[in-house]
Write a structure and sequence with these properties.
binds magnesium ion; ATP hydrolysis activity; 10 strands; binds adenosine-5'-diphosphate; ATP binding; ATP-binding; alpha/beta; Glycerol-3-phosphate ABC transporter ATP-binding protein; single chain; nucleotide-binding; 36% helix
Length: 238
């Protein structure tokens, strides 16, 4: 069980508060998307959940566990960033298998998992290539695959498609939605792209200046934005 609760979660840098005591309940296996303009605190929130950023105040629960002080590597979480780095000297297969090999999983199990994941992402035919022999979109698929073979309970994605061209973004949206259905993981996805949010999310969290403005399904946000900011951001008639 990996529902996630943010209770009055706050982040300050010196005198500056960038996340203001936000409350959010994310259900187990939900696909939740944080949206909002640049600088509104999306990445900071995600990084606190990942354990990559210290929590200034409030409580963070993963399942029933208070994890404020649990180190990142002890949380069952995988994260994919916008600037993904593959190991350049390793094949795609090795890039994807490496994390499992470090954990000493049996080789047959690793191969099964890598091939299954590669199939879902449509990169089976690339397993013997090196990263420099791949296009940007293919590399991004490998980066996703590498994170996903671990079967994390919680999967965090920070603007994973923002370096891709529009056409590729479309096909990657489909691939990620498919992975979410297959994986049994809770997905928390950050973007400033309304189309991604509206088409992929179970629920959208709209943020502004470190505050949550509204949390609801894409349809409900579209039909009933609570203020002009949400309406403008979601693109509904104002
Ligand atoms: P977003 O991901 O929504 O674009 P961020 O979470 O990256 O926004 O940043 C939120 C705010 O926190 C921004 O105003 C940013 O300048 C500030 N910020 C982020 N990291 C630091 C830091 N290490 N020191 C000071 N301010 C920071
Ligand atoms: Mg960001």
């Amino acid at each position: 069980m990996s529902g996630i609760s943010l209770k009055k979660l706050r982040k300050t840098y010196g005198a500056l508060t960038v996340v203001h005591d936000i409350d959010l309940e994310i259900a187990d296996k939900e696909f939740i998307i944080l949206v909002g303009p640049s600088g509104c605190g999306k990445s900071t929130t995600l990084r606190m959940i990942a354990g990559l950023e210290e929590i200034s105040a409030g409580e963070l629960y993963i399942g029933d566990d208070l994890v404020n002080d649990v180190p990142s590597k002890e949380r069952d979480i995988a994260m994919v960033f916008q600037n993904y780095a593959l190991y350049p000297h390793m094949t795609v297969y090795k890039n994807m298998a490496f994390g499992l090999q470090l954990r000493k999983a049996p080789e047959a199990e690793i191969e099964k998992k890598v091939r299954e994941t590669a199939k879902t992402l449509d990169i089976e035919h690339l397993l013997n290539r090196k990263p420099k022999q791949l296009s940007g979109g293919q590399r991004q698929r490998v980066a996703l695959g590498r994170a996903m073979v671990r079967n994390p309970e919680v999967f965090l994605l920070d603007e994973p498609l923002s370096n891709l061209d529009a056409k590729l973004r479309g096909s990657m949206r489909t691939a990620i939605t498919k992975l979410h259905r297959q994986l049994d993981s809770t997905f928390i996805y950050v973007t400033h792209d309304q189309v991604e949010a509206m088409t992929m999310a179970d629920r959208i969290v709209v943020m502004k200046d470190g505050y949550i403005q509204q949390v609801d399904t894409p349809q409900a946000l579209y039909d009933h934005p609570i203020n002009m900011f949400v309406a403008g951001f979601i693109g509904a008639p104002q």
